[in-house]
Amino acid sequence: MSSTAITDIAALVTNDPSLGDGSPLGLIHDAALVIEGERVVWTGESSKAPATDNRVDAGGRAVLPGFVDSHSHLLFAGDRTEEFNARMSGRPYSAGGIRTTVAATRAASDAELERTLTRHLAEALRQGTTTFETKSGYGLTVHDEARALRVAAAHTDEVTYLGAHIVAPELADDPAAYVDLVTGEMLDACAPHARWIDVFCERGAFDGDQARAILTAGRARGLHPRIHANQLSHGPGVQLAVELDAASADHCTHLTDDDVDALAHSDTVATLLPGAEFSTRAPWPDARRLLDAGATVALSTDCNPGSSFTSSVPFCVALAVRDMGMTPDEAVWSATAGGARALRRDDVGRLSPGARADLVVLDAPSHVHLSYRPGVPLVAQVWRRGERR
Ligand SMILES: [Zn+2]
């Protein structure tokens, strides 16, 4: 197996506090990193780097772990430009919402779904995302949910069954029947293709009892829970996430003190998705409050065609620093190690020996530039599984 050293790294974010400056980022200055095969085998000061077969000079730039985007909805068809334009122009827009995407997704072929998925994955990779989760939830029939997950599973291990996104339009008058479908025949068809089960626990979607029934049924089939919780209003989602040991409670925009306390005393990560608040002009989630309480925070894109059509983790990092009270260091940690925690992964989101060699070289001397220079395409190189992409 050949070895490669990346040398002359001005600042290396390892996310291993036992390395470098001892901060949560485990920052090493004037650093090098050695890759063998798919793995990182050494990190340290550049002057002490061991001999390797190949050498790549980072030219005094910053290196950090590839972003771990733990929440996206990329199995869709259609377009909601008009809806966004109307919302941002203060005009009423009656047609629209998730149902528009459901209709277009059902009408799309498998090949179309896969083309849309791979186009967005390539776009995310160019912006530094090396691990991503993605969900079903725009099919809402047994056939359409299962095929979306099948398409997704060909491109990532982090596949989430979200049959409980909204009640399927044809069962709008009988939500109990839809919950039976989601926990019955649809679950049977979807479980083989997914690792996770998710539910949109919100007024107008699924209430606490329905969400508990759905997640419990999924767990009995070997799927692990995660929840869209407390996005639009206060509700039972966060408490349910903690009760069921969900890997993540996602959104967390409207939290009581009890919700914050429950997250802080659990292994459930609070995943914040500022692209959604940006794209709907909604109030920001309060990252500072969660961090000060001791909760683990992840940052993710929520990339979807309706409420957050961005695949850019750097954009979310900048928003989190500007508007959610995060420091630049915290935001970078949350977009890398935080995302890994939200997927219960320890092989990604860090750059210390044993980790997967997924990394980003920034066209900047420091990871702080991700929020200092918002909107600038700073990602110069992306390495995934030890290979430059
Ligand atoms: Zn979402």
From TrEMBL:
Q: What is its EC number?
A: 3.5.2.7
Q: Where does Zn(2+) bind?
A: H71, H73, H228, D302
Q: Which residues form a coiled coil?
A: none
What NCBIfam families would the database entry show?
hutI (TIGR01224)
Write down the chemical reaction(s) this protein catalyses. 4-imidazolone-5-propanoate + H2O = N-formimidoyl-L-glutamate
Please describe what this protein does.
Catalyzes the hydrolytic cleavage of the carbon-nitrogen bond in imidazolone-5-propanoate to yield N-formimidoyl-L-glutamate. It is the third step in the universal histidine degradation pathway.
- Keyword Zinc in annotation: yes
Amidohydrolase-related domain sequence ranges: 63-367
Protein name, entry field? Imidazolonepropionase
Name its species. Answer: Streptomyces doudnae
- One of this protein's GO BP terms? L-histidine catabolic process to glutamate and formamide
Give a GO cellular-component term.
Answer: cytoplasm
- Pathway where it operates: Amino-acid degradation; L-histidine degradation into L-glutamate; N-formimidoyl-L-glutamate from L-histidine: step 3/3
Binding of 4-imidazolone-5-propanoate: at which residues?
A: R80, Y138, H165, Q231, S307
